[in-house]
Amino acid sequence: QKEVEQNSGPLSVPEGAIASLNCTYSDRGSQSFFWYRQYSGKSPELIMFIYSNGDKEDGRFTAQLNKASQYVSLLIRDSQPSDSATYLCAVNLDYGGSQGNLIFGKGTKLSVKP
Amino acid sequence: ETGVTQTPRHLVMGMTNKKSLKCEQHLGHNAMYWYKQSAKKPLELMFVYNFKEQTENNSVPSRFSPECPNSSHLFLHLHTLQPEDSALYLCASSQGAWDEDYYGYTFGSGTRLTVV
Asked: Which of B6, B62, B104 has the alpha carbon at shortest distance from A104?
């Protein structure tokens, strides 16, 4: 069974620190990787996606992908209390024009303390 | 309206009731999805529609019945549910195919369902 694993947390960091969220996946054929943020009682919202090995930066967020190790991470620099949420890692197992289904991890709860 | 709209936001129903959840997307996407989110569990894929054709039914009990009349609308018909079906039901849409224009899902705000 194809799986996406995340540490459920909670991960607690002080305001201004770097928060590091990790995700591993089981299927070597996975091609694209997504990070969603979900506030309590709300629906998930896309914050980052990455397709190629290496780093991708967008503002305070950096996604890192290592396909050889089947590992994807999300770094949040200068963490703010408003970043407190559950972060969901999602993996697309299909490629080349086929169905774009996503498999989600359970999510990591992040708490940023003022 | 823009994005993905789900109604109702909250629903309480008895085990003998019949109700429907509605989802509408205004993004021009080709694929629509139903997911179930329970406490302590990952998002569970229920149904996938691509160009209004069902392409996946993830072993969902028959008391859940999806309907997709066109690429913009998706329904989930509910009947004789069980208390363990209480969860957040999320609708999402996407381009439907992995290519350079694929940016994952856009989710609706969800329906919080309670079965009593």
From this structure: B104
Residue B70, both tokens: 């066109």
Calculate ∠ Cα B72-B29-B2, nearest 5°: 70
Q: Which SS3 state, helix, strand or coil, does residue A26 take?
A: coil
| C-alpha to C-alpha distance for A90 and B10, rounded to whole angstroms | 26
pLDDT one-digit tens code per residue, A48-70: 999 889 999 999 999 999 999 99
Taking the C-alpha atoms of residue B37 and residue A72, their distance in angstroms, rounded to an integer, is 23
Residues 6+ apart with CB under 8 A from A101: A92, A93, A94, B33, B45, B48, B56
Residues of chain A in contact with residue B99, where contact means CB-CB under 8 angstroms, are 97
**CB of B34 closer than 8 Å to CB of B47:** yes
- A interface with B, Cβ–Cβ < 8 A, is 4, 31-32, 34, 36, 42-46, 49, 88, 90, 92, 94-107
Residuewise pLDDT in 10s, chain B (116 residues): 569 999 999 999 999 999 999 999 999 888 899 999 998 788 898 998 887 778 777 789 999 999 999 989 999 999 999 999 999 999 999 886 555 556 678 999 999 999 99
Amino acid identity at A107:
G
State the amino acid at position B66 in one-letter form: P
